[in-house]
């Protein structure tokens, strides 16, 4: 039997096993039994795993959180933004653009009569693009591995949380009153039982210095005639991740090995979640609905999708092989619904910080002319409330904290590990609901494919599963208005908002506020770290700096 489920980008899900006569249906019981075969379980769980990773990788500061508090000497970071924030017009533009690309590939293959030429061109193009994808995925993996070795906190079996301070090179605990007490017998930057290792003074110093060098940013600067042309920050892991990305991409381009092709495909999916996202739930639903129609038309009513999917050999699909056959999963069936699932996770994070918002009373004074005397003024003082947002905890580097603060046998960190909870263990009802809807859609897709022995457009089942589960969750939680009003276009990112509340403390209306400006907003262009760029020409008599390339390592912190 050979059956195919085409995706929105020309890739496909297919299965190959014992042939059956065309048009013959498999008994439903037989189809359900085959869903438990390894290649079909790999299809479902691989898709769910990639979406889980991509959604968590796309997390960034929500508009309901204030920028994180900076430590002494730390540079202010500009908030990350999506390269392409989808708008309502994309619901029309994307299907038309994909159809044009798909038809172009179809007629190119028909004209050349040799898909190998197209495959070589696509493989070369994808190899270049894969450096960014594999580099991004490798960098985040290295950051998480580093956080496992050098976390900033950990908890013992009694639930006591120990904080690791790289500036003072010590570990300390915090009591209920907020006072810090340094733990004398824990002098290493290592967590758990490793913190009690009996190391020499020199070994401890090298450990602290190594932790500092791999955690802090390096500065690279290129200057000509005293004027900085290039100046940017990077970490030690950045050098390693691009080395890994280049090696993997070169190996894939030279060998076209299926395992490397799968890795490149996973990385491309992952980086897509970092770059593309609908700006709101209504827009995301509209885009998915339009691609839903596009997928159905291209699979059932045209030869374009199936023909291109059969002839293209490029990292646009995942290939799984087993003793009973092989299965392929198209990347479009992951990325398209996955973008809305990632938005659901960020909405969960938005709600988590929104619940932490506090109302601070403020007195507003207004002056007006007196009705009795033209020259007199009347001063009126009213008490309003200012919305105070909780500071954002960056998710990067927090997975190690979550691991070391979660006791054995539990799923969540101890309550005292507030940073790990805020970054990774916050409530995720909409994310879990959309994941369940996606899994249900995948199982229905595979079941129909096996029963009817005919290609099925995957988005026909995935789009209703994901969008239906999300809007149904909002309905059951009474939060449809919040879902409809949530947007990531920047309009919700306000500060110093004055609001009126009723007797029960509920918000009646917003009196005033201002939108938060980005780092590069305003009139003056800022340089690295928010410092205004200056001409750095040297005026030393008889000598002049013509060319400079420097790499500055972070200064080693030495305790007082």
From TrEMBL:
Belongs to the peptidase A22B family. The chain crosses the membrane at residues 40-59, 91-109, 121-142, 250-273, 285-306, 326-345, 430-452, 458-476. InterPro entries: Peptidase_A22B_SPP, Preselin/SPP. Residues 1-22, 513-546 are annotated as: Disordered. Keywords: Endoplasmic reticulum, Hydrolase, Membrane, Transmembrane, Transmembrane helix. GO terms for biological process: membrane protein proteolysis; signal peptide processing. This is Signal peptide peptidase.
């Amino acid at each position: 039997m050979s059956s195919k489920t085409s995706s929105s980008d020309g890739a496909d899900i297919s299965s190959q096993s014992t042939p059956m006569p065309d048009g013959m249906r498999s008994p439903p019981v037989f189809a359900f039994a085959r869903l438990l075969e390894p290649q079909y379980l790999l299809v479902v769980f691989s898709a769910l795993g990639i979406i889980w990773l991509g959604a968590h990788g796309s997390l960034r500061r929500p508009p309901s959180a204030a920028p994180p508090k900076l430590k002494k000497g730390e540079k202010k970071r500009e908030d990350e933004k999506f390269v392409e924030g989808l708008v309502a017009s994309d619901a029309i533009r994307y299907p038309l653009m994909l159809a044009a690309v798909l038809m172009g590939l179809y007629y190119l293959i028909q004209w050349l009569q040799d898909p190998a030429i197209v495959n070589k061109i696509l493989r070369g193009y994808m190899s270049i693009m894969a450096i960014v994808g594999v580099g991004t995925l490798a960098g985040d993996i290295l950051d998480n591995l580093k956080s496992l070795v050098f976390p900033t906190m950990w908890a013992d079996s009694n639930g006591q949380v120990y904080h690791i301070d790289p500036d003072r090179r010590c570990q300390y605990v915090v009591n209920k009153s907020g006072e810090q007490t340094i733990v004398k017998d824990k002098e290493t930057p290592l967590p758990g039982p490793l913190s009690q290792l009996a190391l020499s003074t020199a070994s401890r110093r090298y450990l602290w210095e190594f932790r500092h060098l791999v955690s802090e940013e390096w500065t690279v600067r290129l200057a000509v005639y005293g004027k900085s042309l290039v100046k940017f920050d990077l970490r030690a892991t950045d050098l390693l991740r691009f080395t890994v990305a280049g090696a993997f991409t070169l190996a894939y381009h030279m060998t076209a090995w299926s395992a490397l092709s799968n890795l490149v495909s996973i990385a491309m999916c992952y980086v897509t979640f970092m770059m593309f996202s609908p700006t709101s739930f209504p827009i995301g639903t509209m885009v998915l609905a339009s691609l839903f129609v596009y997928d159905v038309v291209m699979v059932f009513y045209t030869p374009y999708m199936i023909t291109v999917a059969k002839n293209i050999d490029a990292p646009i699909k995942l290939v799984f092989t087993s003793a009973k056959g092989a299965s392929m999963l198209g990347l479009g069936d992951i990325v398209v619904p996955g973008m809305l699932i990632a938005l659901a996770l960020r909405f969960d994070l938005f709600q988590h910080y929104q619940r932490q918002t506090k109302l601070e009373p403020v007195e507003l004074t207004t002056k007006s002319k007196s009705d009795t005397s033209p020259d007199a003024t009347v001063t009126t003082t009213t008490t309003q409330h200012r919305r105070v947002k909780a500071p954002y905890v960056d998710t990067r580097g927090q997975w190690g904290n979550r691991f070391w603060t979660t006791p054995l046998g539990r799923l969540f960190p101890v309550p005292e590990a507030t940073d790990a909870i805020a970054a990774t263990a916050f409530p995720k009802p909409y994310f879990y609901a959309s994941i369940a809807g996606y899994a249900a859609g995948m199982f229905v897709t595979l079941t129909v494919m096996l029963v009817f022995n005919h290609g099925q457009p995957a988005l026909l089942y995935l789009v209703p599963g994901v969008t239906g589960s999300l809007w149904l969750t909002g309905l059951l939680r009474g939060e449809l208005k919040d879902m409809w009003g949530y947007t990531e276009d920047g309009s919700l990112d306000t500060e110093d908002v004055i609001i009126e509340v009723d007797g029960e403390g509920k918000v009646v209306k917003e009196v005033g506020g201002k939108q938060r400006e980005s780092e590069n907003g305003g009139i003056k262009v800022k340089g690295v770290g928010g410092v205004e760029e200056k001409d750095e020409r040297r005026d030393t008599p008889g000598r002049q700096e013509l060319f400079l390339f420097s790499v500055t390592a972070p200064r080693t912190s030495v305790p007082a």
